[in-house]
Design a protein that fits this description.
Distance between the termini: 20 Å
Mean pLDDT: 84
Number of strands: 6
Structural class: alpha+beta
Helix content: 25-40%
Number of domains: 2
Largest sheet: 2 strands, antiparallel
Low-confidence stretches: none
Oligomer: single chain
Order of helices and strands: EEHHEEHEEH
């Protein structure tokens, strides 16, 4: 949101043109997510969701799920054994800092 890639308000959100470009650059085809004939979900493309542990909103919906899966596939995050928690890998820390502009620790 800080870089203008998504706009979230209330219970809805949009991915901006710069967001579509950004997601394409990191290997996530947002337009393809909507155009996919296999997509039968009634889930919204994107929306805010309040994280129950952090008490901060995060990107949810089809794009949020795809981004999470992409982060696992790229090795940027990994599951903490025996929990639902994830940890950011050293590679992920670099990518999130350099590509997403986020400082994580």
């Amino acid at each position: 949101m800080a870089q203008g890639h998504a706009e979230l308000a209330g219970d809805a959100g949009i991915i901006t043109k710069t967001g579509v470009t950004f997601f394409n650059e990191i290997g996530l085809d947002v337009e393809g997510l909507l155009a996919s004939p296999a997509r039968k979900s009634a889930r919204l493309l994107c929306r805010p969701c309040l994280d129950w542990s952090e008490r901060r909103p995060h990107l949810a919906g089809v794009v949020g799920t795809a981004l999470c899966s992409h982060c696992f596939e790229q090795g940027w995050i990994r599951r903490v054994d025996g929990t639902r928690a994830v940890t950011i890998t050293p590679k992920g820390q670099r990518v999130f800092r350099e590509t997403f502009g986020a400082e994580v620790g």
